[in-house]
Specification:
Length: 719
């Protein structure tokens, strides 16, 4: 049914009269309305279509009656004509509908009102506020695929038959079963693609899978006679993804048909992953097999981990929305959540935005809470990523904006709303708000935290690492005894490295030194050769210094134990005759009579600890007991490089660090090394890691937040 917003009386009414507060302007001529699906309460609904914007609105019986009686003129006239015994209509209902239609640009405005509104909308799209609202999600239309999809749909009708669905499902389970039988080999292939080549293959495969995915959505829509008006790229959370506009699925009253459109993309990707996985099992090693592997991995991950996510506007969200029968699930859920929070704070007794069946309302509320938390976390993670990898000041700005828009601005709007209704609400919001504020302040300001937890390493108090002094061949190695009995004493000979090249250099240096020395002695007998004699003496001294340096280097060939303790050798067994390069790790000598514990503490926690403070180490090894210890020293300056990889965040530790040149681990924050000593001896055969809990001064959460913000501002802006 096409709505008509022009009556004969409109021609005789002035535009100024229609713009009055108690008048209704005409509807747009191109609007269409058709019967929709039954509501959750079994009542009939209608779908209002705006062809210009390709938007759809679901309205109820009362709204349809008003629209059928809609004529430009007084609000009271429209309400009177639309009023029936079954569906009572008041002027308030007409005014609310007029506001809704005006807000969504469904009315025919007069030129003097339409032009300023258009200019305001265009101006709003150019400001910084619009950029901040849309940087996490915006769309770029590329082409209109309807004609192409109509032609393709005629040749692919078999894809939507029950027989093909059963075959595809069976093939998917067969492929998954065969992959599980080769699961170890499949997982062992993953590290081969953790490089630039694997990243490029993943991007290409992901792009191909997404094309397949979007075509499936479009073909499913064409299967039910809908138009697909747009395909393009949507930038979601700074990541480009393809999209297909299937908004016309709102025209479908059968929820099963909408579910088919929603799930077509996921089904296509799963089938593609099954085919790729099956092909990987059959193909010989080569580029095509690599492509199949990457395609199988990316399709499974994207389908299960991303597309099925109901907290973002992916396929999982629309599947959940249609399964519940709740259109605009996110907006309606947020409105319901806001009402619940407002009622809890004020107890105003306002009517809810809508009433849903009990189980459905619970699901919608849980979804709203999870969505709010998930989106806030995701936005802050993006801000942290921008801060870490790009423009740090921009990352701080985006984080502040996201916190303000998600928490600060809604809270301020609620406070303003309560303040405007303060006389109506009385003391109820003040009491509840005060209790809520008191709880928040208690959580923020009470010094709950007394311990500082971090990863720590218990090791020998003295350690000495042994390395090959130069390139050469091992001519002496220690006896290969069991680890517990490999004890050595200071000065014991452990290794000897023989370098034929070094011996050759020494022989050449001896000959040169001897030659220049003899020549200098001969010239000293002739007083007329004074200048030549001085030159030869200088050369002789230079050759002697070179020879002494080589001899000193040869003395390092004998590697002796620098201290008494236990000798730890690497996994490979050293044997005489093995060639080792300069700097090769040969072993470590540890003093087992005394131990020390090393940990790294964040700069913000440094003021809470001091030498002499107590701590306890909880080893990760279940057979070891907790170790009581005391702080002996705290470095005066922050560490810049981590010597032990296990402390670094890239290896599962607590200290933020990144991989630097030559494999060095460079700290990204300010952390100080803390050395502790066990109170009682705890002999151990080797070093181990554990969780260290240091008893520090009590600290409130708000204090730590202020310190972090102050440190961030000082570091980035010099404030």
């Amino acid at each position: 049914m096409r709505l008509c917003g022009v009556g004969s009386e409109y021609e005789f009414m002035s535009q100024a009269a229609l713009a009055g507060p108690e008048m209704v302007p005409p509807l747009r001529l191109d609007l269409e309305i058709q019967p929709g699906p039954a509501s959750l309460w079994g009542q009939p609904t209608w779908t209002l279509h705006d062809p210009a914007a390709n938007r759809f609105f679901r309205v109820g019986t009362r709204e349809v009656e008003i629209l059928r009686s809609w004529r430009p003129g007084p609000v009271a006239t429209v309400a009177e004509q639309a009023h029936t015994q079954a569906t009572p209509v008041t002027e308030t209902h007409v005014l609310e509908l007029r506001e809704f239609l005006s807000r969504n640009n469904l009315l025919r405005d007069t030129p003097d009102r339409a032009i300023p509104r258009f200019l305001r909308v265009q101006a709003a799209k150019r400001g910084l506020r619009h950029l901040l609202r849309t940087y996490l999600f915006f769309r770029i239309h590329l082409f209109q695929p309807d004609a192409f999809l109509s032609s393709l749909a005629q040749r692919t009708g078999v894809l939507f038959t029950p027989g093909f669905a059963l075959i595809a499902l069976g093939f998917t389970f067969l492929s998954l079963f065969l992959l599980l039988r080769q699961w170890d080999m499949f997982l062992a292939t993953v590290p081969e693609f953790l490089n630039s080549r694997g990243a490029l293959l993943s991007l290409v495969s992901l792009f191909g899978a997404k094309i397949f995915h979007e075509l499936a959505h479009g073909l499913a829509a064409k299967r039910f006679g809908l138009r697909v008006t747009s395909m393009g790229v949507a930038v979601l959370l700074l990541w480009p993804v393809l999209y297909t506009n299937v908004n016309q699925s709102w025209k479908l009253n059968d929820s099963r048909q909408r579910l088919i459109i929603d799930g077509a993309g996921i089904a296509a990707e799963l089938l593609l992953a099954a085919v790729a996985g099956f092909a990987w099992l059959l193909l010989d090693p080569g580029p095509l097999r690599d492509i199949c592997f990457v395609l199988a991995v990316t399709s499974w991950i994207m389908s299960l981990a991303v597309n099925l996510n109901p907290l973002m506007r992916f396929d999982g969200y629309y599947l959940l929305s249609d399964l519940l029968g709740v259109d605009n699930l996110m907006e309606r859920g947020q409105a319901l959540l806001h009402w619940h929070v407002s009622e809890w704070l004020t107890g105003a007794g306002d009517a809810p935005p809508e009433r849903l069946p009990g189980p459905t309302q619970s699901v919608v509320l849980v979804h709203a809470v999870c969505t709010r938390i998930y989106r806030l976390t995701l936005a802050l993670s993006i801000a942290a990523l921008v801060y870490a990898l790009a423009f740090k000041a921009l990352g701080v700005f985006l984080a502040v904006h996201q916190l303000w828009s998600s928490l600060g601005a809604p809270l301020l709007r609620e406070i303003r709303r309560i303040w405007k209704r303060r006389q109506e609400l009385g003391f109820r919001p003040m009491i509840r708000g005060s209790v809520f504020l008191a709880v928040v302040l208690l959580v923020l300001c009470w010094p709950w935290n007394t311990t500082i937890a971090t990863r720590a390493m218990l090791t020998a108090a003295q350690t000495a690492h042994l390395h090959a002094p130069f390139d050469g061949v091992l001519t002496r190695v220690p006896a290969q005894e069991p680890v517990p009995t490999r004890m050595v004493h200071k000065g014991d000979a452990l290794f000897r490295v023989h370098s034929p090249e070094l011996e050759q250099h020494i022989r050449v240096a001896e000959i040169r030194e001897s030659s220049t020395r003899h020549m200098s002695e001969l010239l000293s007998m002739d007083q007329t050769m004074l200048r030549q004699r001085l030159t030869r003496e200088a050369e002789s001294r230079e050759q002697r210094a070179n020879l002494d340096g080589l001899l000193q280097r040869r003395e390092k060939a004998d590697i002796r134990a620098p201290l008494s303790g236990r000798l730890e050798l690497p996994a490979q067994a050293w044997r005489t005759g093995i060639f080792v390069a300069e700097g090769t790790y040969l072993g470590t000598v540890l003093d087992t009579t005394r131990q020390r514990i090393v940990a790294y503490v964040d700069e913000l926690e440094l003021s809470r600890i001091s030498p002499g403070g107590s701590a306890r180490l909880y080893p990760y090894r279940p057979e070891s007991r907790p170790v009581d210890c005391v702080i002996r020293s705290i470095d005066a300056t922050a560490a810049t490089v981590l010597e032990t990889a296990a402390f670094a965040s890239v290896h599962g530790g607590d200290v933020p660090a990144r991989q630097g040149p030559k494999g060095r681990l460079i700290l990204q924050g300010s952390a100080y090394r803390v050395v502790l000593e066990p109170i009682s001896p705890c002999p151990t055969e080797r070093q181990y890691f554990g969780r260290l809990e240091i008893q520090g001064q009590r600290s409130a959460l708000i204090q730590r937040i202020i310190q972090k913000v102050r440190g961030l501002l000082t570091r980035e802006f010099g404030i």
